[in-house]
Design brief:
The structure is a homodimer. By secondary structure, the first copy, chain A, is of the alpha/beta class. Chain A has 12 helices and 12 strands. Chain A folds into 3 domains: about 30-70, lambda repressor-like DNA-binding domains (434 Repressor (Amino-terminal Domain)), CATH 1.10.260; about 85-180 and about 315-340, Response regulator (Rossmann fold); about 180-310, Response regulator (Rossmann fold), CATH 3.40.50.2300. Chains A and B meet through helix 4, helix 5, strand 2, helix 6 and helix 11 of A and helix 4, helix 5, strand 2, helix 6 and helix 11 of B. Strand 2 of chain A pairs antiparallel with strand 2 (about 115-120) of chain B, so a sheet runs across the interface. The structure holds a DNA duplex (30 and 30 nucleotides).
Chain lengths: ~350, ~350
Amino acid sequence: MANNPRKKNPPEDESKVIPLIKGRRATSYDVARLAGVSQSAVSRCFKPGSSISGKMRERVMKAAKELEYQPNAIARGLITQRSNLVAVLVSGRLNLYYPEVLFKITEELSAAGLRALLFTVDSEDDADMVIEQAWQFQVDGVISASHMSKEQYAVLEKRQIPVVFFNRYFADHPNTVVYCDPSEQVEEVVKQLSDLGHRNASMITGPSANMVSRERARLVETSLKRNGIELISTVQGDFTYESGAAGLQEIQLHGSGAPTVIICVNDMMAMGCMDEARSVLELDVPKDLSIVGFDGIGMSQFSSYELTTIRQPIGRMSESAVRMITERVERPDQSHEKRVFEGAVIPGGSIARAPT
Amino acid sequence: MANNPRKKNPPEDESKVIPLIKGRRATSYDVARLAGVSQSAVSRCFKPGSSISGKMRERVMKAAKELEYQPNAIARGLITQRSNLVAVLVSGRLNLYYPEVLFKITEELSAAGLRALLFTVDSEDDADMVIEQAWQFQVDGVISASHMSKEQYAVLEKRQIPVVFFNRYFADHPNTVVYCDPSEQVEEVVKQLSDLGHRNASMITGPSANMVSRERARLVETSLKRNGIELISTVQGDFTYESGAAGLQEIQLHGSGAPTVIICVNDMMAMGCMDEARSVLELDVPKDLSIVGFDGIGMSQFSSYELTTIRQPIGRMSESAVRMITERVERPDQSHEKRVFEGAVIPGGSIARAPT
DNA sequence: TTTCAATTTGCATTCGAATGCAAAAATGCT
DNA sequence: AGCATTTTTGCATTCGAATGCAAATTGAAA
């Protein structure tokens, strides 16, 4: 295969000496020619672990540097069947949890020599599109922190694309998962609330279809019951700040039996709820009303909020997620695994003794 | 070129009928074989604008659907020299401005048939790495909302990779830019401050190396002077919440001649500043101290803050950025262009009449 | 029906790097 | 030095889709 067999109609310029047509990027053949070696040698030079003598490596590297040669990841991907791309699926909604996760995952991927192909997914249709795109781009794997239906997952599975779920999973399906289990922390917080004299609580959940929301709600319900706190009412939000604020409006806060604490299944809603309580209902949080969140996003600790919340160890979870993806890329038939992390209570200042 | 010339050692299975080795993804050859046409026909079917008869298209599409065929973007990229990937560079720091921009840009890219390859860049070294990676992955273009030195830009330029700067640019270098010019809004806000009786102000800037910070600072200084407000002091932050809080500590707020308003060159610092004023210094914002920000990020309008700020039209800017990238990909020699957008004042509630 | 143009189709090659295999070179051993 | 090993190197092919060109088909005009 002649690499560059002088196009049929030589455009009068570019004679033998010029190694590189202006603007065209150097290929391994160009480097080989300049170094006086074979293309294979160049290829091996850039592939760690190949059999290459020091002398050869030196010559090639010199030529490569001169031509600013870097291997073409696209061509490499074609032959190796590895794109080094990983699709990362997050929600595009204004929920600071996602950017935090996204950035952490991106860093970890980067450290592992992989690149993040970003997808924002906020509906089933989005997810369908993502799956096709991921397929087209031959991503090595998918890390999903957002919507994905069982059917969609099945498609990826059939196509042998490794998927790691980030803080979500299908209970009745084998899948690879990093997950933060907040059960102990829920108990801890609820017990504390009980000790502080709270007897009535309300909860703001996420969409009922959402597994994380359901799971957290379940834990909260159980813990409340166990600690002698009554769950007066539950309203549904959608994880956004606005829905937290709106949620509070739906809750009857006056009269006997009114809740003295609101538990929100994520921080964004908790912050919305807190702001609503303070600025619209003119309540003092935590004196008049205690509020609890989930996630432990950076912003929840700003001094306007100082939310009492249950943090996920996002850093360690991201690290795990990336490691699991690389493992599954190496050994696709490896059995599925669920790595569970403990949450941690951030004491915050959004809970206090129940008003009398 | 035989596509699938039956591996030398046929593993006793997979005889002639089975069109697809289990797990292998279908290629255009597989589709061609099943449909009884040539590979070129399949290729043309999936390339809009190619010369194909309706009958042929139908046959191919039927076979393609059956095999779940989707063109391989990697292989396509190799031959067309278009990867359909765009590197998006944002800062990984906790500044909600970046996620907002990132998500908007990603959506717009997606609508244009491009995918975002995400890079978080927080130092020159990061940027060096990004440039090499972008080169390796043959990205069609780069949208940079973060650090990039002139030298780094020069490298990309030499390699003919189109770059669009998002809200930053090199003044003494031709470059393609979307930019939000807040000059009128600065004047508007400062005038309002003046009308409210403010005579002394302080400012919290970003790093002095940062062009956006310098530009905003310059505008603020000029406007203050023009409106008879004295700039008592300027302290330097790094665009983060924490640095806004720390910045306020450095400002002498008591005694005659103390500033009655703090202007922060971004919202994150303004929020940090506001929280610090309220919770540590126990000041009433805006009664005791007015605060102004820049960017208009979503969070700045949460009711804990209701920051008076100057918003960038991120949506329209992102749209433009993507359009400019695609234009430059089509016509690399097109002259550079700088699209400037107007800011908009968000009145907010963080400024009030100067205390007496 | 014949002829010519327009459209459709297929052939063969190309993009750039990786890799199995065989040839060549370097090394070790006697 | 002579021979067997081990290590390097190069050759040729491969990955999957796009495309220039020529052949084949279709359609229109005469």
